[in-house]
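Following up on my earlier thread - several people asked me to post the actual chain instead of describing it. Fair enough. Here it is, all 338 residues.
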Amino acid sequence: MVNDVFQVIRKSRTPINVPLTNISTAYFQRKSDGALNFFPRVPVSLSSSFYYKFDKASLLRDDVLPKPILGKVAPTVVAADTDNYKCSPDQIILGFDEINQSDILRTGAPGIMDLRKNKAKIIAEKIYIHQNRLFARNYFNESVWNNTLKGGSTVGSGVDFVQFDNDTSDPVGVIRKAITDMKRSTGRTPNKLGMGQRVFDVLCENTAIKERVIYGGSTINPALVNENVLAQVFGVEKLVVFDSIWNSSDLGETENMEFICDENSMLLVYATDAPAIDEPSAGYTFTWDMGIGSELPIVEWEGEDFTYSRYIGGMMSYDMRIVCNDLGVFFKDAVSAV
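Reply from S.P.:
Thanks for posting it. Predicted structure:
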């Protein structure tokens, strides 16, 4: 290996600033299902169309009547409405100059990256960030839900519950009450709870919660508070921590790293794992394949003649919509900001 490098140097074929290392640093995020599978995905063949919405009031009314002798009761009418979705394509393109990269490729130095694979990974990362930002904008904020509860240091004007990092808080009581309220008004028991990173951190250290699980451990296997444990304590099927991050600063500005979803808030919903007819869900994510048969295509093509450039691009076309607003409760400022 040393002799090979020496011979290349001796023959004056070593480009300047060649990365002679097999180490590369790239801050790719761990791709959890997190926000992207919190609501069921609905693959659609048309970019824009409509879907049916059934009326809760008429569906849950008791319309069974005594049958008259030699007669029949009047037919029951279950009201229905429609709403529209619209999937608009979003795109990202990265390019690289083949001449500029030729020196690096010819050296055969260890650790030379597969440029196409690297560009595709970068595109996938940026699409992942974009998907999470769409989720935060369309689902994870107080302005989009009719049912919003706000936390504070004490219950009072404009404050519905004591924040969970307060010693007097009762997170289990707050969430269980919200579950019962939704069950009473909709006939559906909330089954998913999504929260920001700080809410999760605080709940893991909450004294009332730790007391509920502490006796389930042993010296060898101590009791730990994690997503599954919290889901059982609160009585939901699935608990998700929205922990994806992004740099919110523009190109050339000082980086500003932060969580995409509000780290101090929380969302309780009823949502099916898969779309179904006549089955309500707080939200649906409509996904369009853009007529090319792929939900997230990543393709490569050559640039203009004599530019010796190549491009790799990715696309997605989603519409994240709240379908049943009364099947969601947003908890604003579940913990105090830092």
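The longest strand covers residues 309-322. That should answer part of your original question.
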